[in-house]
Specification:
The structure is a homodimer of 252-residue chains. The first copy, chain A, is an all-alpha fold and 252 residues long. Chain A has twelve helices and no strands. In chain A, 39% of the residues are buried. Chain A binds a DNA duplex (30 and 30 nucleotides) through α1 and α3.
Chain lengths: 252, 252
DNA sequence: TGATACTTTATAACCCGTTTTAATCCATGA
DNA sequence: TCATGGATTAAAACGGGTTATAAAGTATCA
């Protein structure tokens, strides 16, 4: 590596570090390319020379963490069905470790998020889930009479949609976790074998109970803020989905 | 309605019509608030006075068509499981009637798409699906031992994610349709009753075959463009998901 | 050391969505 | 007919992402 290249990669690192700082400090509101350049001690043109665009910079932030996530996932020791649910747990744990940061990065990236975003974030995850599901099938815990690609796509899409919904403030982290578990268990229960059926159904029931508990407590805290007018009550009754969303908006 | 109010609603209509024209003419690239104002023969400030923001205008475009969709859905006569799949067909048909328009509007709206978007587009659809699923349950075509809210959320989320993926250019309309059918059938098969099990499984198999056919033809057309280098081949092998996406990008 | 080649810099510009300001229009009611 | 008052207008401005330009800087090689 020539000295030019080191100073270039140094600058890249500076910019990514500055982006992290800004994102963590006060969200994507404070994250303009001009403030980023200032924070990194660099001119406004440099980030464009080195990264090309704002979303590339944000993608660089995500990529590092996602690599950590996958590495940790490789070290799990459990039966092949449990690993699937642990993958969910780890995703939630990753997000919970620094929620504002991830929320800001993910929603910022997916706002502009062209195909690049999908390709870099969703793509690798699809490969990962496909592998996990194949391993479960090989262990005779999932039936093999359903197209593995189709199944993996469905599952991955569900996970991804949930994370995105969380990032956009439509779900609490807890509800995201519960939805992912429920959706996963539901899908799995459609192709579970005799060996794994009970295990999967138990997972499904527990995720279901978790969701119900979350809804009840969201509703309760909504009631504490004051009585419901009729319109709000109707919305809540029909659209429990939005309970979290609304309390989130009001607290913002 | 006073004469002021008629001229106001006239202006609203002009603006929405101009937005339709611009969207259909050349996509969201041509859709700036300044060109919109010009097209509508109105000052830049007026759209803000009447609608408040760009996304409100786009939402107004979507809302009318979604209302049509739901109205048409109310007139279906089929057994309660078939209606679910017909709802998918009708969604696809709606989008196919004017793909560029819907793609542009949806991706533009969901790009800026704050919670408003979700609330107005996804919310009513959730209510709709929940009703359809309840009717199927009451007809003893779905088991009732799974929380209907949780189930409806999962299904709606899947449908919505698929439409969004299509709007963002990651899926062909055909693949979106196939994915929706497959995901729906898979979820239903987890809670199908003895009466409906065969029907649902047949749907699942046919959607699966549909997806495979789409992948094969996408791969074939990709091969016609020239031989695959190793890297591309690896991506395609592991990530069939992106076949459509890539050919879409290249043809753009 | 000095010339070369490449990068970064400063700066201005462009278009975007949005907001603000004061001026202007014009239907309404006296 | 004319004053009133709300709606629309023109125009400028703000901060945003991004790009273009020429000047300044700096590592490499002769």
């Amino acid at each position: 590596m020539t000295s030019w290249e080191t100073s270039k990669s140094q600058r890249r690192d500076d910019i990514v570090a500055a982006a992290r700082t800004l994102m963590r400090r006060s969200g994507d509101a404070a994250f303009s390319m001009r403030t980023l350049a200032e924070e990194a001690g660099v001119s406004i043109a440099t980030p464009y020379n080195l990264f090309g665009s704002k979303q590339s910079i944000l993608l660089a932030l995500l990529s590092a963490d996602l690599a950590d996530y996958e590495a940790a996932l490789a070290n799990l020791h459990a039966d092949e069905i449990e690993v699937l649910f642990q993958a969910v747990s780890m995703m939630t744990a990753t997000l919970r470790a620094d929620p504002e940061f991830y929320r800001n990065v993910m929603s910022a990236v997916s706002r502009d998020g062209g195909p690049e975003f999908r390709f870099m974030v969703s793509g690798p995850r699809y490969v990962l889930w496909k592998r996990l599901l194949r391993e479960a099938t090989e262990a005779d815990l999932l039936r093999s009479d359903v197209d593995p690609d189709a199944f993996a796509i469905t599952v991955t899409q569900q996970m991804f949609a949930n994370v995105q919904n969380w990032a956009q403030g439509q779900l609490s982290l807890d509800e995201m976790d519960a939805r992912m578990r429920f959706g996963l268990a539901l899908s799995l229960s459609a192709i579970a074998t005799r060996t794994s059926r009970d295990q999967v159904l138990a997972r499904q029931k527990s995720a279901e109970a978790l969701m119900q508990r979350i809804w009840r407590s969201a509703l309760a805290s909504r009631l504490e803020q004051g009585p419901l007018d009729d319109e709000t009550r109707a919305v809540l009754a029909d659209q429990l989905v939005h309970v979290e969303n609304q309390s989130l908006k009001e607290s913002a």
